[in-house]
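INFO  loader      accepted 1 record
INFO  loader      residues=311
INFO  predictor   begin
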Amino acid sequence: MEGKNLVVVSFYDRRPISNLEQLLQSMCEFDAGAEYSLVIVVNRTTDEALKFDAAGLQPEVHYRHNIGMNIGAWDYGWRLRKDFDRVLFLQDDCYMVANNWLAAVESKLADSQLGLLGETFNNGWNLNWDALRIRLQNTPLPEHLIDGEVANRIDVYLHCLQNYGIDPGQSGLHLRSLCFAARMETLCAIDGFPIGHNYGECIAAEIGISKKVEALGLRLALIGDEEFAFIRHLEWNQDYPGGRFTKLPVVAKQIGRLKKENQQLRDKLQLQKRAIHDLQEKLAMPRWRQIAQRFTGNSADKRPLIDEGVG
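INFO  predictor   done
INFO  writer      dumping tokens
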């Protein structure tokens, strides 16, 4: 298919670099089915340059202040390279699971009536706003404020959408911002993504992107024929093949992270033990044998002509 593809990956520098490396590795393991250029946008909290294994890819790496979470990084990324025809946006927690992951995006976006693609809808929000307000009244979240006062989540989101100048529509149905894909002309038409400055505003921004696209008369759709057909996310788990994908609870994610960190510490300790063992063996070795190893590169048990005590 004609046209150029841009892939924009968001990364927060306080997150494990292994997640980003796993994504890049999976992009190599599974054939994209189309050519692309890669941009990584780092939401930075320090001045240190990002160090990672790019798995043979050659990404451009750009840095910005940590505002707007992944959506803020995505918005920054596509604006850098408006000479492309399509853009696939990925969180660093994503990873590929099937070949032709980019060809599928190209194929879907060839339909001029489709404006935004993702891997999963928030179908639980396919209710009118009044019903959602009642449903979520007992599920408060941090940083959900209106004029500094704690408020119902739905009221916060509607307030933010109004400030963003976005029509909320009749329901809260939207694509989750785990990954998005859109034509460049659509991104220009909606003037990119709204940028939240706290947790509540960022959730409103996720909702607002779908609403901005729908306001153009364009539809939302999955990249494949089912959820997570090509791109999956570390926070979403499938309990059994063919089963529903559910978001991992916060505790489960924390346990998984702690297990991973524990294994890394075990591996590091094992390496230290080996180094200590090697050092102990070297210290116990006669001086003449150490000298022999240095000059011969082996540990042949052959006493040199010089005396062991000669320095």
